[in-house]
């Protein structure tokens, strides 16, 4: 079973990019388990409480989607560092993110938006 970790922007994709993240993961992967990390949850909470714009709405939706993920604890307090830590430890098979600097740091396959509203493995 594939282990997939979702970044903050992955959980915000339904609102920001029109991507149905879990449907797309179903399409790409036969069997998988979804995870995220505590710093991502904290970042979503902070963004959700920051206002009433699209980003805040996307963060609230993303926070709700964390219910579909197991939340992992890591030594890192910064979300990107936590995801890199998991990848380096081979604790995941894929990371879902559109964050280019993060993608460049990861040592596992990345799933990101391709085209209008589809995910692809890179």
Strand and helix layout:
Elements: E1 2-6, H1 8-16, H2 21-28, E2 32-37, H3 38-48, H4 54-65, E3 70-72, H5 79-88, E4 94-96, H6 100-105, E5 109-114, E6 118-121
Parallel strand pairs: 1-2, 1-4, 2-3, 4-5
Antiparallel strand pairs: 5-6
Brief rundown of the structure:
This protein has helices spanning 8-16, 21-28, 38-48, 54-65, 79-88, 100-105, and strands spanning 2-6, 32-37, 70-72, 94-96, 109-114, 118-121. The protein has 122 residues and is of the alpha/beta class.
- Beta-strand content bin: 15-25%
At the fourth level of CATH, the homologous superfamily is 5'-nuclease
Tell me the helix content: 40-55%
CATH class equals Alpha Beta
* CATH architecture label: 3-Layer(aba) Sandwich
List SSEs in N-to-C order: EHHEHHEHEHEE
Catalogue the unreliable spans. none
Output the structural class: alpha/beta
What Rg, in angstroms, do the CA atoms define? Answer: 13 Å
The 3D shape can be described as globular
Treating each run of at least 4 consecutive H or I residues as one helix, how many helices?
Answer: 6
Give the N-terminus to C-terminus distance in angstroms: 19 Å
Overall residue-averaged pLDDT value = 95
Count the strands?
6
